[in-house]
């Protein structure tokens, strides 16, 4: 048991006092992630600015009867119930 703990606690990362690559590499990764974040935020802002201010209303409010407002194909609720579309329709 003690032998397993000693093996796990052993420093297998080499000599950490020489080389000194961890600091500059960490700084590089932080700057890279920060730059990527700034670019993503700018891209999303430009895409949001291109969206219309309001979207067309596509359905009734949640929880209301959809037959009261009628279907979105331009027919009234009664027409769509009595004459269901069949096959190919001419425009």
Automatic annotation (TrEMBL):
Claim: Transmembrane is one of the keywords in the record: yes
List residues traversing the bilayer: 20-41
> Ranges of Polar residues compositional bias?
64-91
Superkingdom of this protein's organism? Bacteria
**Is Transmembrane helix found in the keyword set?**
yes
Q: Which UniProt keywords apply?
A: Membrane, Transmembrane, Transmembrane helix
Annotated segments matching region Disordered: 51-91
Instruction: Write down what this protein is called.
Output: Uncharacterized protein
Lineage of origin: Bacteria, Bacillati, Actinomycetota, Actinomycetes, Micromonosporales
């Amino acid at each position: 048991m003690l032998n397993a703990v000693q093996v796990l606690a052993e420093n297998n990362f080499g000599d950490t006092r020489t080389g000194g690559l961890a600091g500059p590499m960490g700084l590089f990764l932080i700057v890279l992630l920060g730059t990527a974040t700034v670019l993503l935020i700018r891209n999303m802002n430009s895409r949001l600015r291109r969206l219309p201010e309001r979207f067309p209303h596509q359905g009734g409010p949640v929880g209301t009867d959809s037959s009261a407002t009628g279907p979105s194909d331009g027919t009234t609720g009664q027409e769509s119930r009595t004459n269901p579309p069949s096959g190919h329709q001419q425009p």
